[in-house]
Amino acid sequence: FLASSLGAQDAQTSDSNEFSTSGSYVISPLDYLRIALFVADEVQFQTEVRVSQSGTVTVPHLGSVEVAGRTVEEVRDDLFVPYDENYYVDPHIDVVVLSYAERSVTVIGKVNRQGLVPFPSEKGLTLMEAIAAAGGWSADRLADKGNVSITRTTEEGEKVILEIDARKISTTDYPLMEGDLINVPERIW
Question: Model pTM?
Fold first, then answer.
């Protein structure tokens, strides 16, 4: 499991099989979180919750709180204000990502293993990394590296197709989004 602890109580809330991640990680629906509140180094509450499809979690005293689309640090800061104003004196809020929602992209065409490629939540995934994770080009002479496409659905539901000459890009070019479809066509002779 991967985790992101913020603040002075890191050692109290992280166990040895968790790894620190960035407070800039953007929380998504179906991520699994641990939220803890401390006052003067004493735990007032600790809860483990799955982010709902609608992007909310339920926490003590506050009820349903929107967290999806916000960074771990923003969620911590957003929770601090109502707890500090209404319930506790100078609380420390700890937000930990215990597990990420499963994410993937699909790679089809002239690669060695067509299908879903896991999408690493914390660091992201680029076009060339996805092709490598799909076993690479099926055969240099068969794969048309100059006409690779990424099909993406926007938040408005519109499909956008990016045409890419993969012979001219680096491994850090073209960051992918969860749900992208990568097509490596067959070369036409």
Answer: 0.60
